[in-house]
Amino acid sequence: MSKQRKPGASVPRTTKSKYQPSAPSNTMTYVLGGIAVLVIAGLVIGGIWWSGRDKGEAADQSALASSSTMIVGPENAPLIDIFEDPLCPVCKLFEQQSGPAITKAVTEGQLRVRYHTLNFLNSKSASGDYSSRAAGALKCVAEEQNADLFLRFHSALYTSQPAEDGTGNITSPELARMATAQGATPATAQCITDNAKVAQAEENAKKSTDELSKATGGQVGTPSVLHDGKTVEGVLDGTGWLEDILGGNKS
């Protein structure tokens, strides 16, 4: 997991570091870093290492189910939970790398996915609430219970992702038109335009963040993936992580 960062702190688009909601200042980072070196040196000299440190615990499955934006795929398939922020450029990279493979696995009945939409990058949008509104739009689309539609709209959000430098934005009516272009009904478009699911999406985001924090020992970042409630490593290194999960199910 990468160093902790302030909500929405800018990340170069070529990085493979995850976004993390909070962090100390740069000065404090250097101070703590120096202390950490001394502490680690002392532990190594003393023959002690952190092999037993807290790496988190399995998240609560019922809580993950209830706080998800959408669940796709058959119940008997391997289960993963994906945590993203619609404004996170590293999440866009994750979608570009793994999105098609995830969609294919879901469509072929090989994978079950619970999508969790976080919103800690709200302040980095021009409107100050884009992540929440996009999460609400995804929830409106999810109400149709059409997995193909949801996956198309989810992908479209990242294809059209606004800049996270405080200047980019997509209005709710524009989100509604985007959903309509993917096949959403007029009722769903109206739901998005009216921000009807934003409050629910924000509540779900908080619950999902709490569960992710539990599973990672407090290291919350996006994108993150859990498999059966436990952290999956290497999700920004291509699709090998997914192949391991699917291959493990076949063995």
From TrEMBL:
**Which region is the signal sequence?**
none
Pfam families linked:
Thioredoxin_4
Residue spans of biased composition, Polar residues class = 12-22
Please name the Gene3D superfamilies in this protein's record: Glutaredoxin
Q: Which SUPFAM superfamilies match?
A: Thioredoxin-like
Q: Where is the Thioredoxin-like fold domain?
A: 68-235
Instruction: Give the compositionally biased regions (Basic and acidic residues).
Output: 203-213
Q: Which InterPro entries match?
A: Thioredoxin-like_fold (IPR012336), Thioredoxin-like_sf (IPR036249)
Q: Where are the transmembrane segments?
A: 28-50
Keyword Cytoplasm applies: no
UniProt keyword annotations, A-Z = Membrane, Transmembrane, Transmembrane helix
Specify where the region named Disordered lies, as residue ranges: 1-22, 203-229
Q: Any idea what this protein is called?
A: DsbA family protein
